[in-house]
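From: lab user (bench 3)
To: helpdesk
Subject: output format question, protein + pyridoxal-5'-phosphate

Hello, I'm new to running complex predictions and I'm not sure whether the block I got back is the full result or only part of it. Here's what I submitted:
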Amino acid sequence: MQNIQMVDLKTQYARIQEEVDAAVLEVIRSGAFINGPAVKGFQAGLEQYLGSATSVIPCANGTDALQIALMALGLKPGDEVILPAFTYVATAEVIALLGLKPVMVDVDPHTFNVTPAIVEAAITPQTRAIVPVNLFGQSCDLEPIMELASRHGIWVVEDNAQAIGADYTFADGHTQKTGTIGHIGCTSFYPSKNLGAFGDAGALYTSDPTLAERIRVIANHGQQKTYYHDFVGVNSRLDSIQAAILGIKLRHLDAYAEARQTAAAAYDAGLMEVPGLVLPARQHNSTHVFHQYTLRVRNGQRDALQVFLREKGIPSMIYYPVPLYKQEAYSGFAAPGFELPVTEQLCREVISLPMHTELSREMLDTIVATVKSFFA
Ligand SMILES: *Cc1c(COP(=O)(O)O)cnc(C)c1O
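Helpdesk reply: Thanks, we reran it on our side. This is the complete output you should expect:
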């Protein structure tokens, strides 16, 4: 058995090497490095994959996507933006960078996501936007969140960096891909994400043609016509070589999700009866594409479990060890002593096991047996 890795991009590449190498060489030989056919091709492919009249605007990375989304909404300094305190820093960073006020809220202890009730309780007359994060690979309960946003006249920007490909089911039974439900969806193609480039890349989605146009303009220096600048924009482009690679990998995205779901099912079956562990819950109206498989370890044993696994050669990660409001850079956005109970608990209890598309049965059995032996 090969060494167990947290993420194995090399083996994944080896299985599609011929296709990827040919696509990359084609870009190099064509000389169409900026906004060439590879970018247009990937954009069209992703639009088709996402369905529901969604426009895709590619950009340089997921953090840029979030920043451009908030810029496109025309928010003003001091406007409040609601986001979970239990997320990757990028979500808060762009809010702070634009002079907006991050309002950090708690999450559900089972799904790790914000709930409609939590979001609603944080709405004030200054609230202009909500950024629900579809954490670890499943959707927030977005239909009621969209309803309350519409009642209050608030924008919803989905941070879908971790959940590309997941399906959300509405009350009437129809399904939609995560990221296409909010007014704007943002995603990242960071190499270890479910659809990963071989470098940085990202995209925004929207089904609102006015927003789509504004996003396109902002991502391109605020220019509609070359050398005429109507807005202060940014330079955020998807690299053509990355687009060529993503175009190939998009064809495998559903198979990649299945491989992750198979690994998650093996973890579930193997760890179900271990007292002291809480398995990741599934949002009842979302599929789960398992960007991460994240357990909660009770009784203060999380750190000891991680050390034990490391000694046995099994990597694991803590996503996330510190709530946003306790980060040096963001503590100023919360009142002194501000704490959210579930976020605090999760930062103490969570551990993510190896999760990628190349986990063999033997590897999964080894990981399960090792985790169990810690508790035996
Ligand atoms: C990865 C990630 C981002 C940022 O994406 P980059 O492409 O690394 O800029 C934003 N939000 C969440 C939740 C992420 O996981």
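A quick orientation on your result: The pocket of pyridoxal-5'-phosphate is lined by residues 61-63, 87-88, 90-91, 133, 159, 161-162, 188, 190, 200, 202 (CB under 6 Å). Let us know if anything else is unclear.
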